[in-house]
Amino acid sequence: MLATAAALLPPLALAASESASATPVHASDVAGAPGLSAPVQPTAGSYRAVFPTRLVDTRTTGSRLRPGGRLVVPVLGRAGTPTSGVGAVQLHVTAVGGASASHLTVHASGTAVPTASSLNFAPGLAVANTVLARPGADGAVTVTNGASAVDVVVDVVGWYAASPRATSEGVHPVAPTRVLDTRRVGRPVSVTPTTVRVTTGPVPAGATAVVANLTTVSASASGLPLLSWASGQPRPTTSNGNTVRGQAVATQAVVGVGRDGRIALATGGGSTHLVVDVVGYVIGPGSSGGHLRPVPATRLVDTRTTGVPLASGQRLAQRVTGRGGVPVGASAALLTVTSVPGRGATGTLVLVGNGERTPPTSDLNARADVPVARQVLVPLGVDGGVAVVRSGGTGHVVVDLVGYVTAVPAPTAVAPAAAATLAPGVPAGPLRDEAVSVLGNAVRHGLSVWWPRTAPSLLARPMDGNAQSDATDAIRRLSMEALGVSTALATGSYDPQEAGMSRAQGLAVVEEVVGTVACRHRATRLGGWGHSWQSPMWSSLAARAGWLSWSGLTERTRTCVRDMVVSEADFASTVAPYVMVSRSGVVLRPGNSGAEENSWFSLAPAVALAMLPTAERRDTWRATEVRFLANSFSRKADLTSTASVDGVPLRSLLVGWNVNADGSVVNHDRIAPDYSTNAYQNIDTVLLARLAGADAPESALVGLSSVYAGLATNVYDVGAGYAAPGGSVYRPNTGDGQEQAGYGVYYPQGCDWGEGQVLPFALLDAQAVAFGFDDGAEDLDARGSASRHLAHAVEMQARSADGRMYVDPTEYTYVGREEHTAQLAAQLVLTLVLAPAGRDDGDDDGVEVAPEAVSPTAPLDGPPTPGDESRLIDPRVSSDR
Fold first, then answer.
1. How far is CA 6 from the centre of its chain?
2. By C-alpha distance, which of 149, 141, 97 is closest to 118?
C-alpha cells in the first residue's frame, strides 16, 4: 500500500532511509558559524525565542542536496541555544530552486526517516515551512531530501526546554484572531517595516511571543523574503518564508513581541499584501501548563487511502488524544497538514478544534499543481479532536501529528459572592417593599406556573450549536428565571409560602436549570451552544444564578459553570465592539445602535473576573470588558474627549459611536427608549464587581448620564411627525397639549416590542440614583420616577392572581416576557442591596487597567452575524400563560 501511495504522489511518499543514503553532508562543514552568545540556562519547560539565525545555506557553498541525500545540521550550542536540556528546536526550513516537485523531511540526527514530510516544494520556487524537530544525541537535526536536487536554507528561531515544571513559560492556543490585513487599508508590506499590535483580544499584555499565520497575497514578485520580529528589536537577516506571485502563501511562525505589544513585518524587497492571524501566544514564568512536547511523526489522516477527497464546505474530524502519545487533556496539537495536488484541488484549509466554528482565517492555500505543506498549532476540541475545513476546491488532505501542548489548567478557584454584602438583605428605603414584591410575584409565577407548565419543554430543547435560531429561546428563558429565584434566595427575599416551594426546593430548581444549561455548553459538550451573537448574555445570566447559589450546586454543575464562564470570556475577547458609525463617519449599522450588543458582550468577561479573580487571563478579560463598556453608549463627541476611564484615554478605546448627541438610542430604525434601558447591562458589571469585593469599572458609566437625561429632556413634537401625544419619554403630553408626569412611558416612534413595559425604566431609575448618572437630568426627580414606575409594575402584577406581569401579549411581545420580568426584578433587588446608601459615594477609583492592554485594534473582521430579533416577537398568548 505504501508503495502504491508513493507511485501516486511522490512528494508525500516514504523518503529514503538513513542507511540507504550517501555519506551525509554536515552543515558545519559548509556553513558553520560560532554561536552568537553563550547560552543561558532557561526555566525548565519554557519556550525561548532566539534572534533568527541562519545555520546553513547550501547556495553559499554550491553543495545542493541531491536526490535521496541528507544534510546534518548541528543546532545545539549555536545561535543562543544551550548544549543540553533542549527538547525541541523551532526551525524555518526553505527549499530553493528544486529541479522538480519533491519534499524534505526534518528529523533528529541518527534516527530513521519519518513517513511524514516537513516541506513540499515546487520546481524553481523558494518554499518555506516552520518545522519543530527534536535534536539528536549529537545536538543536530537531519534534513533528508526526496527525489529532486534542491538548495536548502535552515534558520533557527527558538527552542523548547525539556523536563518542564508547572510554572514555566507556556504556549497557549487561542481561537484564530485576525490582527492585520493590509488589503483592507491598501498599504502592502514592503522593505520599510510595518508594526501591528498583537497584545489585544485574546493575547495578554505579558505575552513574550505569538504564534501567527502569516499569509502573503498579491506579491509584486516571486521569491520575496518575508521577515517578522519583535518590534523595537534589530531587523533579522533571515526570513519566515517567500512569496509566489499570483499565489497566496501561508506559513506559521513564532514571533517575539516587543515591549510595545507589537510585532514588526517587512519584505526583503518589493512588496506584498499580508494577512496576520494570531493562533496562540507564549507567556512568561508564572503561567501553568502549555508545554510543547514533540512526538514521533504520526499520520492521522490521509484521504487518499479512502479515496474520498475533501470538498469545499466539508469538515473532516479526527481524534488526536490517544494517538501518537498525546494524553487526554492536551490543549493543542502541532500538526503538519498537506494539501495533495490534483484537478480542482485549490482553495484554502483551516484546522480548528472539533466542534468549533470555522474562523474567517486559513492555515494553508492549496494548489492544483504541487503539494503544499504547513505546520500548524491547533487547539483541541472538547472531545480531544480537530477538524479540517476546506473552502473552495476539492482535493485530498494529509495530516501528520508532530507534537502537542500539555493541558493549560482551567482556573478552579471560584471566589464566592460576598455573603456579608448579601446577608443583610434589601435595606429599608422608599423602593424596598415594591422591589421585593415584584421579585416575589415573579418567583411565585415562575415556580407555580412556569416551572410545571413551560420549563419541562425548555429543558428538553437540544441547546446545541443552533441555539441562536431556536424560536423558543430555551437557554435565555431558563437562565433568566433561574437568576430571579437564585437572587431571591441569596438576598433573603424568598418567601416559601408565597413561592409554594421550600427554600430547598427552590434551590433544587436553580441547580437543575443551571446544571442543564451550563453542562450543554460547548465548553463541556461537543456541538453544544455558545460562542454566538447573544451567548455572552445567556451565559452570564446562568452563571450569576449559579454563583449566587454556589454552595447548593453539585460539583458537576460547578465545573460546567466555571468552564462555560471561561469559554465565553475568551470568546468575547475575540470579538470587536459593535458601533453604529465608525470613527471615520461610515455608517456601519443603519438604524441600529450597537449599544446593546456591546453591553451584553461585556458581561462575559465581567462574570469571569468576579468569579475567577486570580485566573491567568484576567488582564485580557479586563481589557475586553473595558473596551466593550466604553463603546456601548459612546457618542460622537467622545471620540475627541480628553477624559480617561480606568486609567486609559477614552478616545483610545473607541472604534466609533452608538448614541445620538441628544442621548437618544436608535434601534430597529426608530428612537427606542426601551433600548436606552439596556444601560442596566453596563451596571450589571458594576454589581458583579461589588459582589466580588472588587473595584467597579469606570467605563461602565460612559455615556449613561446623557442617555438617562434624554429620556426626560428630549421633547418630541407631533407636528414633526412623531407619534401622539408627543412630549418626552418620561413626560408625555395630555390630550390638551400639557405635560403630564404619569406612570406610562412614551415611545415617539412606537415600539415593535409593545408599549407596556415599565419595569426596565424603574430599574434604570433606581440605578441612576444609586450610581449617580442622573446628574444630567437636572429637572427630573429620578427617585420619584423610580417610585412611579415601580408602583405601576406592582399594579400590573396585581391584575393576575398568579403574579404574572402581562395579561395581554401585545403589552410586551417578547418571547419569555415573564422570565424577563424575573431577571429585571432580580437586578433591581441586587441594585438596592449593593448600593444601600442610595448613591455611590464617588470615591471608587475604578479598575486599574494598563493602557497597552486596552488600546483597540481596528476591527478587521465583522463580529458574529446578528440573529433575527423578529423571531422573539410573539403576537399571540404563548405557553408561559
1. 42
2. 141
**Cα 358 from chain centre:** 13
Look up residue 204 and give its three cell numbers. Answer: 495578554
Q: Which candidate, 658, 661, 530, 642, places its Cα nearest to that of 589? A: 658
Residue type, 819: E
Q: Amino acid identity, residue 218?
A: S
pTM recorded for the entire structure = 0.79
On whether the 419-842 domain is CATH 1.25.40, my answer is no
The domain covering 170-283 belongs, at the CATH homologous superfamily level, to: Galactose-binding domain-like (2.60.120.260)
Instruction: Scan for cell 499569509, then name that residue.
Output: 215
Nearest CA-CA partner of 815 in 447, 542, 462, 476: 476
Element (H, E) at 610: helix 595-611
Flag the least confident range among 115-129, 371-385, 420-434, 546-560: 115-129
pLDDT at position 467, please? Answer: 76
Closest CA to 352 of 380, 392, 329: 380
Contacts of 490 (CB under 8 A, 6+ apart): 417, 422, 548, 549
* Digit-coded pLDDT (tens) for 695-731: 999 999 999 999 999 998 899 999 999 999 999 999 8
C-beta of residue 100 within 8 angstroms of C-beta of residue 147: yes
Would you kindly state where each structural domain of the chain is located, as residue ranges?
1-162, 170-283, 419-842
Is residue 759 within 8 A of residue 825, CB to CB? The reply is: yes
Model confidence at 680: pLDDT above 70:
yes
- Mean per-residue pLDDT, 299-314: 94
- CA-wise closest residue to 556 among 519, 588, 525, 587: 519
Look at residue 79 in the predicted model and tell me its pLDDT. Answer: 83
